[in-house]
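Onboarding guide, step 5: your first structure request.
Type a short instruction followed by the sequence, for example:

Predict the 3D structure of this protein.
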Amino acid sequence: MPNIVFVHRGGFNMASYRTRCHTPGGELEKYGHTVSFNGGDAHVCIFTKPYREDLAVAEKAKKNGCVIVTDIGDDHFNHVELGPVYAKMIEIADFVVAPTRVMQVRMSEFTDKDITVIPDPYEMELQEPHAEGEKLIWFGHKANLESVRRYMKLPNLTVVTGPEAGEGCIEWDFETQFEEMKKANISILPTTPGNEHRSPHRLCDSLRMGLFPICDPHPAYKEFKDVAWTGGMDTGLRWARHFQDELNDIVLEGQAYVEKHFSPEEVGRQWNDFVESI
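The system replies with structure tokens like these:
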């Protein structure tokens, strides 16, 4: 079994660390792999969310016989600093991974290498559906707060964000998000232009927590059209008010779908298949 090292400069408070390193690494250990983070002997080195300092590390590891995998979940290719780093890391890599089909297509603009799609796993503990009601919640990084700003005057909306949440918001940490989601009925997921590459991670966690998701159109949400409202925020909020008695049953179906396709075990199986193939 190869030794696997995940390289990510962030910590547990970053969703990409949890979903692209910590959880996959834990699942790979169940298959008998030795897994470490940000250091150690490696046969396979997986760089997630790379920074400039990672380029030299990756090149040195490759010269020493390590297989280099680049796993990128954010489309920063037009960023003045990160764009060249991402493109170079793809060039260095022996293999490339993306979390969504849209990101796969975007990354294919920079390489002829095959790009394997492995989704983000869900994170939240399963809760009984409690979608009947009009308590709304939005949770996410402060960088995406602009997408929800037009709804922040709604008296029944809770916003959990960070860092430095600001007036009218609750400061994010994992436990706070969990507790606030237990109090809510509906999760709102307005989209931010330019984030079409993003995974359905928040939609999956909303369903896991027993909430009914109401979303703006987004490529990653299309497959959830039967278990969430994916046709736009305003029409979705109106629809949910009129069909309260159907929401819990829909959430229950959504939870089954998420368990089948986005569980840590299923995502871990895909990572193991990938590692075993390289």
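Each response can be followed by summary notes, for example: Residues 69 and 95 are 5 Å apart (CA to CA).
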